[in-house]
Amino acid sequence: MSVHLLLDGVSRSFDGYKAINDLSLAVDKGELRAVIGPNGAGKTTMMDIITGKTRPDSGGVWWNQTVDLTRIDEAGSARLGIGRKFQKPTVFETHSVEENIALSLKAERSVLATLFHRQTAAEAARITELLELVRLEGDRHRPAADLSHGQKQWLEIGMLLAQDPELLLVDEPAAGMTDAETMRTAELLRSLAGKHTVIVVEHDMDFVRALDCRVTVLHQGHVLTEGSLDHVSANPEVIEVYLGR
Ligand SMILES: Nc1ncnc2c1ncn2[C@@H]1O[C@H](COP(=O)(O)OP(=O)(O)OP(=O)(O)O)[C@@H](O)[C@H]1O
């Protein structure tokens, strides 16, 4: 399997504090990876560095082993196929579920043109496929405002997928979800692996267990340990800085 994303000895300070400290991390193409760690461990800053929102002071960030992501801004990383889902859902509340997906389909069209444009059969099929994937097929004509918090998160994942990203960065998707929604979200993200590379930052350990994937533990901007959830959970340092709290 080839390395899709590589962070190589990355550091970044804010006012003299090393938020990211010699961080090295390799994620394979098609891999699903969970990143856990205490508050302030540097998880958000790591995502910011991958997407070009924040520049590292030193170290390399490589995409497909050839593209230097430290030279690319957020718009550039989106064009390369890096999609990011922030914690808070940002759907178009007054538009229907279906319109939200239609607006996100990869196309050089303005919002108005998309709303008044007649869908091609291929577009309609793609919208249906995405709605089925995120289990919102039955809600396609409802305004997004009517959805539950969990359903809005799924809709936003669907909107991200509409742009066909190679890598999805997902920030705490399970926060605020019911147990059933949490498990369904884990299932959804697992189903995306293989076709997409997925990195999920999460605090909910039941959710991380359900992801059933390799786990990276961040602490003070550095990788503390990596492996299966059982492996990292048995690490005394992980218990000390994170799980034991
Ligand atoms: N733009 C910034 N300016 C100053 N300090 C920052 C900035 N961004 C992050 N930090 C600091 O860097 C450290 C790492 O923060 P970061 O948000 O990346 O951690 P995190 O693991 O995402 O935490 P949480 O789980 O609370 O979201 C923190 O001490 C934070 O205060």
TrEMBL record:
Signal peptide: none annotated. InterPro entries: AAA+_ATPase, ABC_AA/LPS_Transport, ABC_transporter-like_ATP-bd, ABC_transptr_urea_ATP-bd_UrtD, BCA_ABC_TP_C, P-loop_NTPase. Residues 5-245 form the ABC transporter domain. Keywords: ATP-binding, Nucleotide-binding, Transport. PROSITE patterns: ABC_TRANSPORTER_2 (PS50893). GO terms for molecular function: ATP binding; ATP hydrolysis activity. One of its GO terms (cellular component) is plasma membrane. PANTHER family: CONSERVED COMPONENT OF ABC TRANSPORTER FOR NATURAL AMINO ACIDS-RELATED, HIGH-AFFINITY BRANCHED-CHAIN AMINO ACID TRANSPORT ATP-BINDING PROTEIN. This is Urea ABC transporter ATP-binding protein UrtD. It comes from Frigidibacter albus. The gene is urtD.
